[in-house]
Amino acid sequence: MSDNIATPPATVLPKSAYETFLVLCGAAFLLVAAVIFAYGRYGSVLADGLDEACAEAAFLSGQRLEALGNNDQAIRRYRQALEGRFSDPERRHMCGRAIGDLLVRENRFTEAVEAYTQLPVEAFSAAGAYTGYVTALWREGRFTEAGQLGNTWLKKAQEAQDTTQQAWACDALMRICEQTGRLEEALAHGMRAVELQPASSVRLDLARLFQRLGRSQEAREQVEQLLSVSQDTQILDAARKLLPTIS
């Protein structure tokens, strides 16, 4: 047997293939260089756009979760959104208020106040933006701050001629004043609230306040008026239960 092993001939690439390879390498180099140049010049713009898209996606996800009643997950998504960038400042304000409002619904009032206080004044330009904030302060026992913001809420609602927000603000102020012993002020706010919304359950609280002041006849009148104008089953049931206790 021969010890000589035949060596296969070397593969020689055609000249055209070699030139094509060089062209492709050159093109790849130019592409990388272009990407590096573009990122250096426009990288912050590209990053901002991606950041805005992520913030918007997290915000919309939070809204969907909120609509499904998954408040804890919604709060997490809204907080993720706030870590990003919004092109519209009002969008950021909406996100921040949504966190506070959901925390109020979950009776996490301390956290809610903290969430609201992190927002700028501009975030509360509309009357309805104060609902959760005032409620959280009131439920935390921070009555002075709650009263101040409640009055701001009422003023904005009056300027906007929004009777619903006026009634809600008066209701909140009635409760705040009652808990701080300013019963006549509380009574005035309550009377204004039921004037704006005659069928509101606020009449029940107003009746209890009249009863506390020893004005049983007026308390009874409030309940009877509510029974005559309300069509809400729960409110009517509560009114019927309250009426026999008034003496």
Question: What does this protein look like?
Answer:
This protein has 247 residues and is mostly helical. The protein has a domain at 45-125: Tetratricopeptide repeat domain (Serine Threonine Protein Phosphatase 5, Tetratricopeptide repeat). The chain is 74% helix and 0% strand. It has helices spanning 15-67, 71-82, 89-105, 109-117, 131-139, 143-159, 163-179, 183-196, 202-212, 216-229, 233-242. Helix 1 (15-67) packs across helix 2 (71-82), helix 2 runs antiparallel to helix 3 and helix 8 (183-196) runs antiparallel to helix 9. It is elongated. The protein starts with 14 loop residues before the first helix and ends in a 5-residue tail after the last helix.
Low-pLDDT runs of 5+ residues are 42-50
Highest-level CATH class of the domain at 45-125: Mainly Alpha
Full CATH superfamily name of the domain at 45-125:
Tetratricopeptide repeat domain
Helix content: over 70%
CATH fold group of the domain at 45-125? Serine Threonine Protein Phosphatase 5, Tetratricopeptide repeat
Determine the strand fraction and express it as a percent band: under 5%
String of helices and strands: HHHHHHHHHHH
Reported CATH architecture of the domain at 45-125? Alpha Horseshoe
Number of strands: 0
Shape: elongated
Can you count the helices?
11
Structure class:
mainly alpha
Q: Calculate the terminal CA-CA distance, rounded to whole Å.
A: 127 Å
Rounded to an integer, what's the Rg over CA atoms?
A: 33 Å
Major sheet characteristics: none
**What value does the average pLDDT take?**
85
